[in-house]
Amino acid sequence: MSFAGNLNTVSLPDVFQLIFTSKMTGALKITKDKEEKNIYFRNGMLIFATSNDSQDLFGNILVKKGRISKEDLNKVLAGQTSGKKIGALLVEKNLFTREEVIGCLKMQIEEIVYSLFGWKDGLFEFLQDHNPPPDSILSELNPMNIIMEGTRRIDEWEEMKKVLPPDDTILELARDPAIKTEEISLTKNEITILALIGSGKKLSKVIEDSYLDRFITNKVLANLLKLGLIKTAKEVVEEKSVEMEQKALAELLAQIYLGNLNYIFENIKEKLGGKGDRVIAETFLGNKSYYPNLDKNFIGDDGQIRFDYFLEMYKKLPQEARIWKIVSSFNSLLNDYLYAVNKSLGSKIYKRLLSEIRINIHNIINQNRQISVKYGLEEEFNRILRDK
Predict the structure, then answer these.
(1) What is the pLDDT of residue 236?
(2) Measured distance CA(198)–CA(227) in Å, rounded
């Protein structure tokens, strides 16, 4: 029997209980946004799990649990050949016995499943008789035990949320902890997290760097905050500097692209009248695949590219790929409209506009050469316009 639904209407424990009591065999696929986790069952028992979240990868879980160092894991991965699983390599290199690998795989399955208990929503689908990937090492776990532990973790999460600040909060060690006693006993996990925080670190970074899993790390952080051994801190100057730089970069790109594109639009509408709006719209729609980050709303009712739209789009893009995506999309857009000018208004107007745009970009870049040089903007625009 196959079935489907959403976790916001049917809870995960209810789904597990149905599979267990009905002794089903198959795969429970659960997705939310870009995350996907597959839980495999045989006769109602949980036997395997997969996830596309990097935190759930077998090697990463071993590091998080302190079973292997990051350096040793990287050495193992460097020698990994196509199709060979990490577990087999660990046994080959005498880092683990086969029994230890099986135990760690069981731990991985549990961590993948426990992570689902924090999902308030997500689409699920049970696919009857779907089996785990070939050559998978299977375990056998009772879903009822998993439900009990998962439910306990949910209750603890609710208590932790009352103490923990947002992920982007910087934590630092308290210089003068308000502790009544002269002596205090700390666990190994608490000492590890205190060392990770050091002179100050974002909560999200502490979780990322911790070899403990997310749940345990948050639990330790909550307890350290309650004890007064750590406290929240104001953002460091470097982070404010990065934020200011990103703002200046966004304004620079907006000046370059929005100003020049709007200037092209004005020339098209001035020469073609009512037909100009159609040329502008058709040029965009006809080449939409070349700038997937933009949508048709990028031009406002007044026929100008909206600055608020540009900033909103800029902020949504991942910071590490932001420049590439912006430059790639808007360079294509600029090229297409220059081509439309050449085709609709003739080469004379095209050459005049191109010359004016070159001068305009050069002047804008000179206003903030430091950022332009750092991100290679001058070279990029010189190249794109030189190709004309």
Answers:
(1) 47
(2) 17
* Res 126 pLDDT > 70: yes
Using CA atoms, how far apart are residues 105 and 102, in angstroms rounded to an integer?
A: 5
How far lies 267's CA from each of 202, 263, 273, 345, 347, in Å? 49, 6, 10, 9, 14
Cβ within 8 Å of residue 360, ≥6 positions away? 259, 260, 263
Q: How far apart are CA 186 and CA 24, in angstroms?
A: 45
- Phi/psi at 347 (nearest 5 deg)? -70, -30
Tokens 């304004």 correspond to 251
- Asked whether residue 107 carries a pLDDT value surpassing 50, the answer given is yes
Nearest to 23 by CA among 142, 154, 173, 189: 142
Q: In the chain, where are the structural domains located?
A: 3-147, 170-233, 237-386
Q: Any idea how long the chain is?
A: 388
Q: Is the pLDDT of residue 27 over 60?
A: yes
H helices, E strands: number in the chain:
16, 8
For residues 166-182, average pLDDT = 80
Name beta bridge partners: 35. Answer: 32
CA-to-CA distance for 296 and 309, rounded, in angstroms? 11
Phi, psi of 353 (to 5 degrees): -60, -40
pTM over 0.85: no
Give 148-165 pLDDT, tens digit per residue: 988 888 888 888 888 998
Stretch 327-356: mean pLDDT, rounded? 86
Kindly provide the residue ranges of all beta strands, DSSP E only, lying in the chain, ordered along the sequence.
3-6, 26-32, 35-42, 45-51, 123-128, 170-173, 201-202, 230-233
Match 């609710």 to its residue by tokens.
158
pLDDT tens figures, 277-328: 888 888 887 777 766 667 666 666 665 667 777 777 777 777 767 777 788 7
Q: DSSP for 12-25?
A: HHHHHHHHHHTT--
Q: What is the DSSP string of 265-299?
A: HHHHHHHHTHHHHHHHHHHHHHTGGG-TT--GGGB
